[in-house]
Amino acid sequence: APLGLMTVAAMLPPAWDVRLNDMNVEELRHQDVQWATLIFIGGQIFQQKEHLRLIDHFRGLGKTVVIGGPDATSSPHLYDRASHLVLGEAEVTLPEFLADFAEGRALHRYEPGERKADMKTSPQPRFDLLKFSNYLNLSIQWNRGCPFMCEFCDIIELFGRVPRGKTITQLETELQALYDLGY
Predict the structure, then answer these.
(1) Of all helices (H) and strands (E), which one includes residue 172?
(2) Are 87 and 117 within 8 A, CB to CB?
(3) Region of residue 113 (left: phi > 0; alpha: psi -120 to 50; beta: else)
(4) DSSP string covering 79-126, please?
(5) What is the reported pLDDT for 13?
(6) pTM (2 decimals)?
(7) CA separation, residue 17 to residues 9, 39, 45, 117, 129 (Å)
(8) How far apart are the C-alpha atoms of 166 and 147, rounded to whole Å?
């Protein structure tokens, strides 16, 4: 399940109508996006080609496209045709974008610099946006960062070498939320 987008959804203003379309498990239909003003896209390198196509498609429909996630953060130059790039960890850069957007002065690019998210303040993902029947299993994220330097992994480049975790209470709350939603 797209845990990053569910976390982003939890950070959006409560008055906004938010829907989640996971194109990894179902087709995107015209009616899924025609109502939207903003389209948020995020993902990893294996989704790059499709994300670039979607940016062009949605911009052609007159939509404002906001992109973030690991691949956009690693290769922002590839995503410059999006309306806005919100890079790094959403807990750091998304609030800045949302404040500027609300005032009508959103920048093209938001970057975290050396700032890292405090996982103890990360919101509970919007599990309620999922169609549980589309997934064999779900996950929760309990930390970011890694102390190791494996040559095949970019985790330390994106999230640093110091693990940062959620509290036990946060984890229990997320697990309870999944249970209460019927998972």
Answers:
(1) helix 168-180
(2) no
(3) left
(4) GTTSSEEE-S-HHHHHHHHHHHHHTT---SEE--TT----GGGPPPP-
(5) 97
(6) 0.92
(7) 10, 12, 28, 26, 11
(8) 17
